[in-house]
Amino acid sequence: MHPRLRAAAVLVGLAGWVSTPAWAGPKEDAKRLYSEAKTAWEDQGDPERASELFSQAYALHPHPGIALAIARTSLAAGRYADAVEAYEVYDRDKGQMRADLQVDIAAELQDARDLLNRRSAPAPVAAPTGPGVTASDDQVARLQAIAEELAALSQSIQSAAVAPATPDQPTDSGEAPPPEPTEVAAPSVDLDIFSEETRSVSRYGQPLLEAPATVSVITAEDIRMSGATNIPDVLRRMVGVDVMQLSAAQPDLSIRGFNRALANKVLVLVDGRSVYQDILATPMWSTIPVLLEEIERIEVVRGPASAVYGANAVTGVVNIITRTPGTGGNIVHLEGGSPGHARGSVVMSGRSGESATRLSAGFHQTGRWSTSEPVVDGGPVVSYFDDPSRAMGTVTANGRVDRRLGDVGSMSLSAGYAGGNSEFYVFGRLGDYALDFDSAYARADFSAGPVHVRTFANTFVAQTGPFTAPAGDDRLNTFVDSDTIDGEVEYINQFDGDNVDHAVVGGVGYRFKSIHWGYLEDDGLNSDEHHFRVFVQEEAAVGQRTEEGWRPVRLVGSLRFDRHPLVDNPLRTMSPRGAAVWRFAEHRSARVTGGTAFRAPSQMESYLELYQPVGGVNGLAVQTVGDRALLPERILTVEAGLHDESSDIHSADVTVYMNQVRDLIGLTDVDGSQFTGVLPDEQVISAGTTSFTNEEGVYRGYGAEFDGRLYPVQGLDLYGNVAVGNITWDVAGQEIPEESMSKVKVNAGVVVRTPWRTDLATHVHYLSGQTWAERDFDEQGQVAITDLPIPGRTVLVGKVATRPLAEEDLELSFTGWNLLALADGGSFQEHPLGQEVGARWFGSATWRF
Fold it and tell me: Could you say which of 192, 219, 241 is where a domain stops?
């Protein structure tokens, strides 16, 4: 390609006017290209070659830091238009980078613009000469002024710190460039821009090497090649994460144990906004209006995080980070397969001046894995849904607008909707329910310097009842109307001192919860709650600053107070965290972290009033009630780890931890002394009452985790991780094994990007056996506990993706999920009360433009 055309193509791609699909394994291959570019520039003094390689790296991994490298090497190569465009891209997008990587390029950008303008200026018109032609005094003055400008321009060009264009390279104007000196500074951004980063541990961007907690990252490329159709299935690959599907529509997950049919100890966020359903203390994945195709990355923090996020971040946090508006181009995706699976999405992203938008819409439906009771027309059992073979059918829409407010700051407005129907397992023997729901949110953010103001509102409305029930029996059918309003003012600032560098985070917030639900006392009329919070974190980096610019030791202290209306003792909702991180080499670090977290009682646990049919006697029921005096569940964790990114071809993390959990919330035995006999209003015979309570004793868990990734050659990515752990329950001095947690979890995968526009991927997820102690009611309505074993299980996933067109903007793929279930006896349960998980296969088409 002609150099001028090649440069123009790079600039067009950088500016976002044409979006070139980056299908390949972007980050790792871009890292290699970046290294080659630095060698070409620093060791070989070839800015033209360096600029080409930096541009190729940017196409794979469009990071603002690479745009800055393109700008500087293009300037050195005399390609001023390229340099100006790349500087402008960097200036526009540098806010996506960590604060310590951002540099002020105002002077460099102005120099590049000046050089471009001088080169593009029209040549002066010579004064007329010849016999009989005389110049006026004004013409002479103008010619003298032009001569002086040319002299000044020549001197300026000779003193500019840019290298000349090569002799055979045309300039933007088509003329040979004027002579220019060859000395120029090397790009100041190094390979640290490729270190994995997290924004979820401390609320601001920092490399994993310096994070004061254990965190793993899933990229958009990982999601593309995962073969997953929902976010929890993507998370199966994460070390220490246990994904449990009770149905095809309801995956629950835990981190380091304590999984339940309602997974209530992991906080799920979308761009920092809580999507935790306060009503049941669990995320409901089908109600989250985020498409896989609009996710930039998912960060998983393992360990307590209440010091940063407050209630419910007990064993970890899952933060789903969506693409910044104006990045990533446009996407249309369609897929379909079995059982009853179909999914489609459209994502549109664009930029106009200081504003950027991202709009998305999609649908998702999937069939049930299995049916416990046959549903036939006119039969004794009816389904809540018209189609009893469907587990879920939803539609979503989402939108976000970001705008820079000049030098003042920025603002962002977003809103989303999800609606449809979904199968959902609720607590205890109530079991399999159906939801017909509408869920929506609205959010506004404003940032000015170190101050960030955020507010959002979540709403959830549903009609619900048992998925299947005897014909004519609708006693358990109910309604739900839940609203949450949250507001927060946050201060984040990082500043350097002579001996200590500081990063300070602090803020105050308020949360309002309102719920109306037929299962609550007085339908929830008296269950509104007002919550308040205040938090602060100080990170001090100490020690002699290295040549690369970082200090070797970071000390972190965090503290948060949450005011819960039903918890009288504020110490029970206080969450401290302390950590020390030692960066003992440029790309190696060690960390020690200790902290506490709590889970607040849900509104169901506090206000429930439900008559639950039990046993084999028609009309027999047990009353289950909430308890407003419940204590929050609390966890104390101490962990130590090593993180290694010491080469371009690998990364690794090793962690050991200890957990201690108190005041877990469970149900009491049935007390038959208070409510017996016939209750006409409820049309049941009461066998007694049971309520939520804090369990006695202490749960102790120990474990170790290893997580590694390897990129031995271009186009080959490998990952593998192992988690081992054990939990025991110490009650009255007796050690009782808690065996609902798999003692061993192993994940491994291979992704191959061939030269023939075809990618191959395979993933294996293994969990060792479990035993669940499940409560049930016998025929007399009394509590009986039964140990139910779940054998070990393996999920095998394979995916083939090809791009048949030369432009590579269309991808066709075929995926098989849980392939071992295709064989007889290959399906399995992941919870003793859940359905048997079967296989899923589907084909898809994706167009990026």
Answer: 192
